[in-house]
């Protein structure tokens, strides 16, 4: 979810679900060691519970960055061992680390020793075309001995050559049964499933067998789905006030605060809202208005008014 689940996206998603655990985009250890720490780690108190996902392989660097995450207030440190992109591989992190379970274990141990918050790992069920269950079983076994108790398992292999990151989310087949088998073999561990889940019913089926489910792109593109989760998965009562219009109004207030506090332009925030009215009449026009670069000079409240205004045949194309 690189460049997707930034702090503005997470604030938006928190308006939709009070209880779902939010994850940052992957932040590399190099970005924190040599870059702008505040830009990468700044968060809003409303985001909790929220996890910092790190990309890296050097134990000392991971420990240092985990400490930074704890100092900035994150509730969990998550190590990414699932990203298949070649750029990530060149940095010696992501899915290629599954071939080096002891190195991952060393990194996890260093982080566990450095912080007082949970350290978790996100990974695939295998790399390239190998289909041996023993590979992922041994990976989980080795890393769990270093102090990791939660594994978030994308139920596809990562093909390190020949497929783009997008193709790696679609072409390698989903094999949920391997994730279920991990839970049977490691009953004391928390096993969370990821990959291909698009409906509340599908998530419910997995939660009957596992400890959690992680949702990514489907939740991003159809964010109103999150509004069901508190009731469906956490047993919380409905919130009558939580409507799409209320969420948009809250985001307008957030845009104004961000502009005053950090000089953030509303366009950088609004891009994460594009799916809010997915499936509703007028959604296409609403989306076009909020994403129209010609609107950038207007205050966000005016953009919202245009997005909701009735359409006449005399109106310009950008508002149609």
From TrEMBL:
Lineage, opening ranks: Bacteria, Pseudomonadati, Pseudomonadota, Betaproteobacteria, Burkholderiales
Active site per UniProt: 83 (proton donor)
Listed InterPro entries: Aldolase_TIM, DUS-like_FMN-bd, DUS_fam, DusA, tRNA_hU_synthase_CS
The family this protein is said to belong to: Belongs to the Dus family. DusA subfamily. Belongs to the dus family.
Reactions catalysed: 5,6-dihydrouridine(20a) in tRNA + NAD(+) = uridine(20a) in tRNA + NADH + H(+); 5,6-dihydrouridine(20) in tRNA + NAD(+) = uridine(20) in tRNA + NADH + H(+); 5,6-dihydrouridine(20) in tRNA + NADP(+) = uridine(20) in tRNA + NADPH + H(+); 5,6-dihydrouridine(20a) in tRNA + NADP(+) = uridine(20a) in tRNA + NADPH + H(+)
Binding-site residues for FMN, renumbered to this chain: 53, 122, 154, 194-196, 216-217
Cited CDD domains: DUS_like_FMN
UniProt entry keywords in alphabetical sequence: Flavoprotein, FMN, NADP, Nucleotide-binding, Oxidoreductase, RNA-binding, tRNA processing, tRNA-binding
EC number: 1.3.1.91
GO molecular function, one term: FMN binding
Domain DUS-like FMN-binding residue range list: 1-296
Keyword Zinc annotated: no
Cofactor(s) this protein requires: FMN
Pfam families: Dus
Protein name: tRNA-dihydrouridine(20/20a) synthase
NCBIfam families cross-referenced by the UniProt entry: PRK11815.1, yjbN
Top EC group: oxidoreductase
Site (Interacts with tRNA): 80, 166, 169, 284, 287
Function of the protein: Catalyzes the synthesis of 5,6-dihydrouridine (D), a modified base found in the D-loop of most tRNAs, via the reduction of the C5-C6 double bond in target uridines. Specifically modifies U20 and U20a in tRNAs.
């Amino acid at each position: 979810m690189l460049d997707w689940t930034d702090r503005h996206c997470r604030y938006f998603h928190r308006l939709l679900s009070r209880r779902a655990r939010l994850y940052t985009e992957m932040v590399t250890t190099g970005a924190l060691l040599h870059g702008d720490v505040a830009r990468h780690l700044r968060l809003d108190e409303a985001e909790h519970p929220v996890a910092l996902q790190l990309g890296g392989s050097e134990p000392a660097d991971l420990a240092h960055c985990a400490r930074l995450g704890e100092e900035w207030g994150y509730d969990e440190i998550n190590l990414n061992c699932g990203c298949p992109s070649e750029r990530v591989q060149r940095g010696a992190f992501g899915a290629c680390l599954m071939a080096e379970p002891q190195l991952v274990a060393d990194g996890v141990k260093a982080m566990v020793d450095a912080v007082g918050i949970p350290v978790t790992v996100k990974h695939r069920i295998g790399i390239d075309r190998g289909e041996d269950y023993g590979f992922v079983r041994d990976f989980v076994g080795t890393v769990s001995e270093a102090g990791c108790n939660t594994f978030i398992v994308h139920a596809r292999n990562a093909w390190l050559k020949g497929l783009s990151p997008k193709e790696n989310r679609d072409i390698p087949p989903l094999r949920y049964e391997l994730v279920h088998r991990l839970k049977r073999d490691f009953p004391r561990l928390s096993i969370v499933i990821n990959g291909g889940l698009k409906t509340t019913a599908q998530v419910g089926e997995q939660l009957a067998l596992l400890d959690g489910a992680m949702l990514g792109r489907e939740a991003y593109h159809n964010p109103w789905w999150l509004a069901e989760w508190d009731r469906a998965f956490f047993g919380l009562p409905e919130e009558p006030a939580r409507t799409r219009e209320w969420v948009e109004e809250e985001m307008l207030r957030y845009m104004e605060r961000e502009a005053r506090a950090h000089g953030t332009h509303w366009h950088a925030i609004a891009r994460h809202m594009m799916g809010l009215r997915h499936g509703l009449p007028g959604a296409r026009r609403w989306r076009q208005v909020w994403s129209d670069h010609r609107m950038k000079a207007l205050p966000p409240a005016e953009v919202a008014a245009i997005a909701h205004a009735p359409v006449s045949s005399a109106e310009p194309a950008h508002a149609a």
